[in-house]
Amino acid sequence: MALFLTPLLVAGCTADPAAPASGTSSPTTTPSPTAPAVDYTVWQAGQSTPVADPIYPARGTDAVDVLHYGLELEWAPSTKTLTGTATLRIRPTRDAADLVLDFMPYQVDGVTLDGSTVTGTVAKEKLTVAAPVVGDKPVTLVVKYHGTPKATPMPSHRSDAEKLGLTVTKEGGLWTMQEPFGAFTWYPANDQPSDEALYDITVTVPAGWSAIASGTPAGQSGNAFTYRSADPVATYLTTLAVGKYQKLTAKGPRGVPLTYWYRKGADDKLLPYLKKSPTYLAWLEKKFGVYPFPSGGVVVVDSESGMETQQMITMGRKIENSKARRDRWGTDLLHEYAHHWFGDSVTPTTWTDVWLNEGWANYAQDLYTKETQHLSEASLDRYLRDADAALRKKLGPPGKPNPKNFAEGNVYICPEAMLREIHKQLGDKKFFALARAWVQEQHNTQQDRASFIAFVNKQTGRDFTKLINTWLDSKTTPRSITVK
Asked: What are phi and psi of 123, to 5 degrees?
């Protein structure tokens, strides 16, 4: 059983001490003349259909569809101050008296909407911009702010649970993991999975330091590092790390550029796993089709966990191997790469369906372990049923996650066991054809249980509705359900 133990993977900011508690910016100038017309069609790929999240309703809103985040950040390690200018291209989904986003109480230094100065107030981790908006009429919001980052609690009891959001290291560096939320700890965000957006992130750091973010590297100018995401990204899949890093580049399958960021000395023992990334990606491509993004990579941080942050995986150096799982760090890395198909490219609409991410990624990880360690089919079947029974008894079914138990074992193992049942009934050829079709045809979309069931039934020509619903909702491990 130890060979298949599930990695529990995860991925904050306060005001400047001198800042007023409200984080209010007051208009100091008169409104500017009518701003020039903006062509919002260039960010069309960032359009989403936001859905209010039923698991964490305090995060995000369905009233706002952010098309693009332009983040210009500067980090000062000596004072632990983050200074930012966030330019958001927003499509309001309906008429409203104001705009509301998730945001930690930094000192807000100025807010404009379509070039006119407006009032922005931060209270209870919400930024409220006092200006009316019209449904489907895009606007440009610019927020200037500064302060010392602070992370936010994670709603979970996992052994590797850590605070979420931007974390300051003892050396004055930064790193973040933010599933199911936490992006709001370093920039104003609609912090929920259904609102994906495009990104341009530029981070300026002192000489000798490096800044790493999600997306494709777009160049370095002096001490400013820029990253661009031309594929839409959910807020929980963005990342930021600052430190005295070493950079290593490589090529993945079909020449996909890969970048690894690590600390010399501290991370030397992890280099063999990082360098194995092309092997992991080649194995995943064979199973699930081409890697869905134009670049990939890994940044190593001071965490006990790992996170599938888009195009730049965030891996904790504190993930420990053991006698039973000597390759845990490596197979956990493969798990995170698998999420680029299942979670990053195809994202759950709400956190109700986190099993859509974790079940697939965990199954990929365990299939890789079984193949590379030459384990039997029976050993995987036995492990999954035993673990499924224990987790359902402790945590309940995976289709009805408890908000206090985010990303605990039931949303990993139980849906993996369900996929195993589907796999056995379809056989290798049809199962992996289904998996490839799911991720390739749903690329850059948000999906849920209903759409998954409909897709499986259409793709296979068989009705798996009862099997899938039973495995997602049953309080006990289901008996085998034969689908004809």
From this structure: -150, 140
